[in-house]
Specification:
Helices cover 44% and strands 17% of the residues. The protein contains 18 helices and 14 strands. The strands form 4 sheets. A 6-stranded mixed sheet has the order 3-4-14-9-10-13, with helices on both faces. A 4-stranded parallel sheet has the order 7-6-5-8, with helices on both faces. A two-stranded antiparallel sheet has the order 1-2. Helix 3 packs across helix 5 and helix 11 crosses helix 12. A hairpin with a 2-residue loop joins strand 1 and strand 2. It is α/β, with parallel strands linked by helices and 415 residues long.
Length: 415
């Protein structure tokens, strides 16, 4: 698993990668853009202007920092998983050291609140009192509902009927937080489409609060920016703990928000490997997976160009994963760019491997990881034997797995 080199797809520029993206807003090579009706262009331009303003606004940044500290509970620990580390030592007692970035300890139990609180603050600044969102595993829905409750905003969350059945506890939490939860036939991609339609019908008063790094510019960049606190803290904590950088960063990939949150800070540190793990479901050849980068092709969906799971006629394919938060038929444009340039590596883990990793972390560390994050943990089985002794590996534990207990138990009994 030698780290790939940046290839010729990366634009030749005197600026670093992040500076290039600043000079080409909304585009990551051929990916990204605004593939939307003319009626949305003005709305997205206003949002982009507001976002660019708050990035430099001292008052907003102070308010956001306070909310992240006192409401969200940041910074989250960089936890040395001692027993998990011992589990992967070889017969000589050698192996990498494994650390978990504990995003599961955030308020409402996942990384999603980092972005939800930031965007809700922007919506309030813009005078939007009605927030619209879509959710799959329920984590973004709960985070958005919580942020709206805190900021006195109305909240409507669209959720697929299949996901509502699997994540019934999250539906109850959203309702307790004051959100209206609307059922949509299907799963997350159908819920996203319905949320966007609802937003388009009331652009003057509503705000579409996306939780993923997909969609038209500036949506992917906004989410990534608010999630980048994960990587910034990781750099600081690594320096405090061992006086250097991580050797490997590991995260699950659905659309890519938690992966980019961890990766973005280290994009220019080419001695740090960035590894994303997609959902292979029942296997890559089964037709029941969500492995967009492994099996997808380039296309346009939900307003941006990226890798998608689609058939020969360009129709979007259905997805499957035991971690329902990974069931999206595409990835963000920045993730697509990292894949094409070779800056990040991408692999897959099956349902069975993810469930086994979930159980392993429970028994070795007393931590319930989300089934989504369990896909990243599962890849340690293949990664650890290839790493030198003492290599520092950081896994993004992007959410808590209490929501997945029934799924794990039922999976075990159905095997």
């Amino acid at each position: 698993m030698r780290k790939p080199l940046i290839n010729s797809l990366l634009p030749k520029t005197d600026h670093d990668h992040r500076e290039y993206w600043k000079l080409n807003p909304g585009k990551f090579g051929r990916f990204g853009g605004k593939f939307v009706p003319e009626t949305l262009i003005t709305c997205l331009s206003l949002l982009e202007a507001e976002f660019n303003f708050v990035l430099q606004d001292t008052k907003f940044q102070e308010e956001l920092s306070t909310a992240l500290r006192d409401y969200v509970g940041r910074e989250t620990p960089l936890y040395f998983a001692e027993r998990l580390t011992d589990h992967y030592r070889n017969e000589k007692g050698e192996g990498p050291e494994i650390y978990l970035k504990r995003e599961d300890l955030n308020h409402v139990g996942a990384h999603k609140i980092n972005n939800a609180i930031g965007q809700a603050m922007i919506a309030k600044r813009m005078g939007r009192k009605s927030i619209v969102a879509a959710t799959g595993a329920g984590q973004h829905g709960v985070a958005t509902a919580a942020a709206c409750a805190k900021l006195a905003l109305d909240c409507t969350v669209f959720m697929g009927t299949a996901d509502m059945e699997k994540q019934s506890s999250k539906v109850l939490l959203m309702k307790l937080l004051g959100a209206q939860v609307k059922a949509v036939d299907g799963c997350f991609k159908e819920a996203s489409s319905e949320a966007i339609r609802n937003w388009v019908g009331n652009l003057e008063k509503s705000y579409y609060l996306t939780g993923t790094v997909v969609g038209p510019h500036p949506c992917p960049i906004m989410v990534r920016e608010f999630q980048s606190i994960i990587g910034k803290e990781t750099r600081k904590q690594a320096m405090e703990k061992w006086g250097g950088k991580p050797d490997v960063l590991l995260a699950c990939v659905g659309s890519g928000s938690n992966a980019l949150g961890l990766f973005h800070e280290f994009i220019n540190d080419e001695d740090v490997r960035l590894i994303g793990v997609e959902a292979a479901g029942f296997g890559l050849d089964s037709g029941k997976h969500a492995a967009t980068l492994a099996k997808g092709e380039v296309g346009v969906y939900h307003g941006a160009m990226s890798y998608l799971l689609q058939d020969e006629e360009g129709q979007i394919l259905g997805t499957h994963s035991v971690g329902v938060g990974l069931e999206y038929p595409g990835v963000g444009p920045e993730i697509s760019f990292l894949r094409d340039t070779g800056r990040a590596e991408f692999y897959t883990a099956t349902d069975q491997e993810a469930v086994q990793a979930y159980q392993r972390l429970c028994r070795l560390e007393g931590i319930f990881p989300a089934l989504e994050a369990s896909h990243a943990l599962a890849f340690l089985e293949k990664l650890c034997p290839t790493l030198p002794n003492g290599a520092k590996v950081v896994v993004n534990c992007s959410g808590g797995g209490d929501k997945d207990v029934d799924t794990v138990v039922n999976y075990r009994y159905n095997q």
